[in-house]
Specification:
It is a single chain. By secondary structure, the protein is α/β, with parallel strands linked by helices. 41% of the residues lie in helices and 12% in strands. The strands form three sheets. A six-stranded mixed beta sheet has the order 2-1-5-6-10-9. α9 packs across α10, α11 runs antiparallel to α12 and α11 packs across α14. It is globular.
C-alpha cells in the first residue's frame, strides 16, 4: 500500500443474521509500547457469540495517513488506518507513548491529535492505558473527573492537570464513558473490566483463562511500589486467602483468617494490605461481590439464596454491595447478563 495514499474506512457490514460488532479503535502514537498496543487486540479479539460471530471488531489507527509508527523498541509498525477510523469507533483506546511531545511537556494536543479527536463522535467510550491518560487530559476529557495512571507518573500528571481527580492507588477507574488504567499490565485489567461490563463475568473469565491471566486482580498499585524486601522467612497471607475463598458463604472473622497464618490480627492486617493493597474486609467484600455476580449470571437461584451463598446473609446487604460495586441492583444485573452470557459466551 502506498503510505501517501489517503486513509479510507467504511462501516463494516453486519454479520449475516446478527448485529454489527462493537468497534474498538486503538490509537497508535509514535513512541508507543508494543505490549500495550497489543492488549486490546488480545482481549477484545477473542470473544464470539454462540453462532461464532465476533462481539468486537478491533482496528488500529494513526493520527496520520497509513504508514509506519515508531515504537519504543528497535522496530516500527505499519498502521493501515488513518484517523478517519476514529469517526466510526464505539470505543477508542489510547495506549501509552513515550514521545507525546507537547502533550507530555505542556499538556496540550498537537494539531494532528486535535484533528483526530474532533472526529470522535459524542458518546463514544474513551479509555487510556498508562500515560495514554495524558492525551485524554490534554483533550479536556478528564476535567473534573476521576482518573489514574502509572504510579511513577502520578505526581507529574497531577501537577500538569490539577483539574483531574487523580487516584494513583488503583489499577483502573471506570467513570462511565471514560476509563483510565495504571501502567502496562493494568491495561489487561481495564480491558477485561470493559469486557465484563459489556458481556458479563463468564465471557470475561473465559477470555482471561485463554490469556492465562487472572480475571480480576486484588488490590491496587500500592502492592507494586518498591519497598524494603521483607525477610524471606516471614509468612505470607496466601493460605488465609485460599481458606477464606473456600467458605465465602460462612461468617468469616478477621481473627480466624489471622489464625490460618499463626499471626496476630495486627500483624496479619498489616501483611495482608502490603500484599494485596486492600484490607482483609475490603478483599472479602470484593470476592463476595464477584461470587454473587457469577451466580446471578450462571444460575436460576433466588436472590435470597445467592445472598446467602455469597456470604452477604441478606438480599438487602447484597443489594447494597452490588449497587456500590457495579451501580445496579441484583435483579437488574441478572436481567442484563443472564441473557447476555447465555448468548455471548466465548468459545
Amino acid at each position: 500500500m502506498d503510505s501517501a495514499a489517503p486513509a479510507t474506512t467504511r462501516e463494516p457490514a453486519a454479520p449475516s443474521g446478527g448485529p454489527r460488532p462493537h468497534r474498538v479503535v486503538v490509537l497508535a502514537l509514535d513512541g508507543l509500547l508494543p505490549f500495550e498496543l497489543g492488549i486490546p487486540h488480545r482481549i477484545f479479539g477473542r470473544p464470539r457469540d454462540t453462532a461464532g460471530r465476533p462481539l468486537y471488531e478491533v482496528v488500529t489507527c494513526s493520527v496520520r495517513p497509513p504508514g509506519p509508527v515508531q515504537t519504543d523498541a528497535d522496530f516500527s509498525l505499519y498502521v493501515e488506518h488513518g484517523p478517519e477510523a476514529l469517526a466510526q469507533a464505539d470505543t477508542v483506546i489510547v495506549p501509552a507513548s513515550y514521545e507525546l511531545g507537547p502533550v507530555w511537556e505542556q499538556g496540550v494536543l498537537t494539531d494532528e491529535l486535535k484533528a483526530a479527536f474532533a472526529l470522535i463522535r459524542p458518546g463514544t467510550r474513551l479509555a487510556s492505558i498508562c500515560t495514554g491518560v495524558y492525551v485524554l487530559a490534554a483533550a479536556g476529557r478528564l476535567d473534573g473527573r476521576p482518573a489514574t495512571t502509572h504510579w511513577a507518573d502520578a505526581e507529574r500528571f497531577q501537577h500538569m492537570f490539577p483539574r483531574v481527580a487523580l487516584d494513583p492507588d488503583v489499577l483502573f477507574i471506570d467513570d462511565g464513558d471514560v476509563l483510565t488504567s495504571a501502567g502496562v499490565a493494568a491495561g489487561i485489567d481495564l480491558c477485561l473490566h470493559m469486557l465484563r461490563r459489556d458481556h458479563g463475568t463468564a465471557v470475561a473469565n473465559e477470555v482471561a483463562r485463554y490469556t492465562v491471566v487472572p480475571p480480576h486482580r486484588d488490590g491496587g498499585q500500592a502492592q507494586y511500589i518498591a519497598r524494603p524486601v521483607p525477610d524471606p522467612q516471614q509468612a505470607t497471607t496466601t493460605a488465609a486467602r485460599a481458606w477464606a475463598l473456600g467458605r465465602l458463604h460462612e461468617p468469616i472473622q478477621l481473627r480466624d483468617m489471622a489464625a490460618q497464618e499463626s499471626m496476630s490480627v495486627r500483624t496479619f492486617t498489616r501483611r495482608f494490605r502490603e500484599e494485596t493493597g486492600v484490607s482483609p474486609g475490603q478483599w472479602l467484600t470484593q470476592q463476595r461481590v464477584e461470587r454473587a455476580r457469577h451466580l446471578l449470571e450462571s444460575t436460576d437461584l433466588s436472590i435470597d439464596q445467592i445472598a446467602r451463598d455469597a456470604g452477604f446473609g441478606t438480599a438487602q446487604s447484597m443489594r447494597q454491595h452490588l449497587q456500590a460495586a457495579v451501580g445496579v441492583t441484583p435483579t437488574a444485573y441478572r436481567r442484563t447478563f443472564r441473557t447476555t452470557t447465555a448468548k455471548s459466551l466465548a468459545r
